[in-house]
């Protein structure tokens, strides 16, 4: 049985290159620019449907405070978020998605769904299961157990 390790590696390299490209280049949506973190953060905020403070989003994404704060400020300046003072603790600022932010997220979601549909269009259920298994294994690379037991570290 032939192994496809070299071809998988080549395609993964291309995918990683594209991901890096996406993180440093912004997309224009509804007249404003969005980078990848903006898009991910906005999507999580829309899905969450709850108002949270900055610290809640920092712990969710496990990134530096300033990185998340910059993304939130960018989304706020675009009109996608609104900041309000927490009525129970005036030291905290709560962050909520605006109707414009929800519309931007719908535009992004529609585009993502179209791309996924294109990729999966001609695949069988078993092929989709194989992709899911592969992605689950790749996701395990980020699990602490793997990181602690990896001899290459």
> How many domains is the backbone divided into?
1
Structural class: mainly alpha
CATH topology: Arc Repressor Mutant, subunit A
Instruction: Name the CATH superfamily assignment.
Output: Winged helix-like DNA-binding domain superfamily/Winged helix DNA-binding domain
Q: How many extended strands?
A: 5
Q: What is the first-to-last residue Cα distance?
A: 32 Å
Write the CATH architecture name. Orthogonal Bundle
Order of helices and strands: HEEHEHHEEHHH
Give the helix tally.
7
Helicity range: 55-70%
Content of β-strand = 5-15%
Q: What's the CATH class, please?
A: Mainly Alpha
Physical arrangement of strands within the biggest beta sheet? 3-5-4
Radius of gyration: 19 Å
Compact overview of the structure:
This protein has 153 residues and is mainly α. It has helices at 5-24, 36-48, 54-61, 65-78, 99-120, 125-140, 144-149; strands at residues 27-29, 32-34, 52-53, 81-85, 93-97. Strands 3-5-4 form a three-stranded antiparallel beta sheet. Strands 1-2 form a two-stranded antiparallel ribbon.
